[in-house]
Input
Amino acid sequence: MLDRADQDDEALAAWWMPFTANRQFKSSPRLLQRAEGMHYWTDNGRQVLDGAAGLWCVNAGHGRREIADAVHQAMLELDYAPPFQMGHPLAFRAARALKQVLPPGLERIFFVNSGSEAVDTALKMARAFHRARGEPERVWLVGRERGYHGVNFGGISVGGIPNNRAAFGPLLAETDHLRHTHDPERNRFSRGQPQHGAEFADDLLRVIDRHGAERIAAVIVEPVAGSTGVLPPPAGYLERLREICTANGILLIFDEVITGFGRLGAPFAADRIGVTPDMITMAKGLTNGAVPMGAVAVGAMMHDALMQGPEAAIELFHGYTYSGHPAASAALIATLAIYEREQLLTRGATLEPYWQDAVHSLRQAPGVADVRDLGLVAGVELEPLDGEPGAKGYRALCAAFAAGLLVRVTGDTIALSPPLVISENDIDELVDKLRGAIATAHGGQ
Ligand SMILES: Cc1ncc(COP(=O)(O)O)c(C=O)c1O
Output
């Protein structure tokens, strides 16, 4: 972290920041220096309520000592061990601990370092699985419009956010997209899952008609689309998608990078909705955001299909130098222990009615076009400024930050996903601050 004395042009110029308007940011930096519980403190000592769990990841709140201690201990004992043809006990223990909170049937875990890597790993596994089972022509990968699956080439190919693809030339061939599920005409201001739109899952039948079921490897969706502006799944939609995938031998991948680890009031969205996918990708809350880590979970049947050939042969030519890193493994084990002890993986369900009432009260704020929620997630969509999409959202972000509240903004939608340790008082404060920020953003029109 920069000291204030270091806030010179050279220091600010040196870090090319991700997904950031670098020049705008550096002309007026927003720096977070310290964090504990529900709060950040800026470099000039202002307290900021965390309405975003950092970036959808700090589910147990900030500054958890147990995680820091576990990582410290792991680093002193084993700083690094290669994961190719070698192993170390912490990674195996971490996988076993993770298996215990995953939906039943998903029991083999491949470690990676981020959500983006989890997605690309899952897409490769899907193709490899079909090939191993004698269906090498099943290569098509189907995502969804408005989907976000990280930034690697596989992820942006199945992803459906045009800006994330525009600059990068040809993407993966053999990818296609389902239509998105956003239907404001019928579902505006829905509480929880929208009632209309289960039939959007039938769009998969169109994709199947176009390419042939026997050529489609997998469908990947976020159970709640997050980065596109918080789109909870219509009631019945994921169930229908599951049915169509099963009937056509297509693998269903849930990208649970944001919905995993209690965000929806259950350990995973799969638990909340009651739909078990063939694979889950995860990251973020996996280590409470403390150490970079991601994972892919698959069923034994998928895993075993790849455990073929001579025993001395490597079964999957894929992996990362830092897969199952000791620091990340230690953080994961400590994080899961906190989630279990404090029952954080289900706490969202208890808070959900209070949260829902609070966020829907923002409907009265000026220029609010929609409010959407599920679990401890909410999206507050603002009417855009004429000809300047996203400008009002950015104004709201700045006004909230000035008022002591961190939110995430995508376009003109404010995404809320606080740490799961949030209290009812914190919820009131968050919503009050946001109401003021929305009014400021609107008034500045
Ligand atoms: C659903 C989803 N998938 C993948 C990712 C990518 O994760 P990462 O930024 O760790 O690569 C994200 C990040 O926000 C996400 O929301």
About this structure: The mean pLDDT is 97. The pocket of pyridoxal-5'-phosphate is lined by residues 114-116, 119, 148-150, 222, 226-227, 255, 257-258, 283 (CB under 6 Å). The first helix runs from residue 9 to 14. DSSP finds 16 helices and 15 strands in the chain.
